[in-house]
Amino acid sequence: MNRIGLIVNPLAGIGGRVGLKGSDGIETQRRALELGAVSESIHRASLSLIQLLQTESTLEVVTFPREMGETSAREAGFSPTVIGETGASTTAEDTRHAVREISTLGVDLILFAGGDGTARDVCSAISEGFPCLGIPAGVKIHSAVYATNPKHAGELAGMYLAGKARLREAEVLDLDEEAYRDGRVSTRLYGTLHVPYRPLLLQNQKAPSPASETHQAEAIAADVVDGMQSGVAYILGPGTTTRAIAQELNVEKTLVGVDVVHDGKLIAKDVTQKQLLELTETLPAKIIVTPIGGQGFLFGRGNQQIGPEVIRKVGRGNIIVVSTSDKLRALRLQPLIVDTGDTEVDALLEGYFSVITGYKESMVYKVIS
Description:
The structure is a single chain. It is built from 13 helices and 16 strands. It has 2 domains: 3-197, Rossmann fold, CATH 3.40.50; 211-368. By secondary structure, the protein is an alpha/beta fold. The two termini are 31 Å apart.
């Protein structure tokens, strides 16, 4: 019988939909809950285990009580072995304690659900070379220790347990969230983890946009602005390429937030998912997004404000994808990825998109979930 450990950070990612660009810190978590945020990591962990249950009928899950793993395991159909204790709310030390306890119990692999902060906690507590794998549930997720989506986390874990996926050393990165909220990207390496690897199942490390892309971004912006329609609200996702569009319009753009322009004017800045849903009740809208460098994510990483409800409402045909050609070439023919948290919306987005790469220039690119 194979045994896996499961650790869930129930607060991971709760700042995303409400525009807080992260979930680190008690104050941020409190604000997120006040704004109506709900935990998604518990359900995303259960989606991974459901996939495992289909391939590993003799699998034992070892986890911590309630929201730290037990809830997800039972939701997926397992009868887990529950150890340890948890308080009314969980902390980073709870994650580290769970890692230390579970890793001594002879498990073959530790699955953990969270974001870059959770990966940092796992990295600081786990023994060198111990197999583990992240279930993506955070806002940013720059680290290369996470599967591309919860289903793939389950698939990849099952492959590893069956001897069909090798381990590789992957970097754990995290941002300074306070700087990130101010529009400054400050990333630090915190260590490495040994994770199962198969192409397209494990996400890549995020890569920054080089300064040489500035002129390409300006050409893309000119093309997009030329095509803007009167009376339509344009939802601008995060990124330097979308910021160039705002600069072409001579309006302010939050680098890591989501903003809305209408008839050449900024009408909403640094919005939440709720605000976008309210706005699209009264105005026709289009979404402009750019993939994350090195990873290729269109939705589900860093732009959770543009959630599945917003995408469904706006419609696939009203999504404009922009990217420099250098960024696409750096993906080495790997497709773009969506992980919205809604399997129906992910399926809706699969297929091919025309990606604007310059002034009157575009290429057709595949999107998968």
